Structure formats: C-alpha cells, structure tokens
Amino acid sequence: MADKKKHTKKWRNRIVGQGEEVPDQLLANPKNWRIHPKEQQEALAGVMERVGWVQQVVVNKRTGFVVDGHLRVSMAISQSEPMVPVIYVDLSEEEEALVLATIDPLAALAKTDNDQLRDLVTDLGADEQLRDLLAAVRLPVSVADVPPDDFDVVDPNAHSTFRCPKCAYEWDGSPTPQKDDQSAQ
Length: 185
Description:
alpha+beta, 5 helices, four-stranded mixed β-sheet
C-alpha cells in the first residue's frame, strides 16, 4: 500500500458576505478577457426569463471589481433589473487575477456524460420554447432526440420516401430488411 501524505493545509474560505447590488453600481473588471457573443446572450436571456437568478455574481470586496458574472450584470442593466444577487470575496489583486483567468477554463475542463445529459434533456420535456433554448446553448447531445409534446408516435417500420430539396434525388426511408444467416450463404 502506498504511503499517502496527510493533507494538512486547509482551504481558506474567501467568501466574506453576500447581498444584493444595483447592477449599474457593479464595476466590470478591466482585466476581464471574456467576450459574450449574441448567441450566448440570447441563450442566457432565455434561461433567466424562464427560471430567474440561480447564481450570484462574484465581487471582490477589496477592489470592488466583478470577478465572475459580467454578462449577467450587463444583461441586468439592459433589462432594468433593480437588483443583482452578489457574493463578496476577499482577494488580493494577484488572487483576483488568478481567479478571473481560471474560473471559466476550469469549468470547461469537465467532461460530458452524454447518456446522462440526454436523459436530463428528455426529462425536461419538449415544448417549443424549451427546445429552442436547449438548441441555443449548444448541448453536446441532440435536442432532436426529444420530440415535441404534440408529436405523433410514428411506426419506425413505416415506409417513407424522401426527396433532396437541392438535387431532387429520391430515396426510400423504409427499414432495410435484415438478411438471416441462412439466406446470406
């Protein structure tokens, strides 16, 4: 058995408070390196409209700068939201820069369990607004796997004919008959 070192150093809790702030009073971090494209803004707006706030904006108490949540603050300002939920941390400028540089990339290192995500998406249901929202966030599983609520059940063995809208090529979409072992010989 390998000799394991006992973990003696404790993680410091850098959270020093929480509250709410008027969004236009929050200071964007001048070192923020993230750019938020229109598609991301629209997807976040869809989630915020459907659910609301579920995550606080992180603000460094020492510098007064936002460390995480720039897009949420910007959108709150544009939507005339009266208040933004905030969690305050106490970081040196060097620590603030480290957190600012690593918080999103560390989250992006997570891997996806596609089966678990597909089950989660399926459990959400499939109203049109939700399907559009899920498509906008570019999930690594197909939202098409979840049929709309009013989708008729279709016999997978039914005969279908398809036609390419560009070249007019037609093909039969019925299931391919499987050859049994004896007929293949």
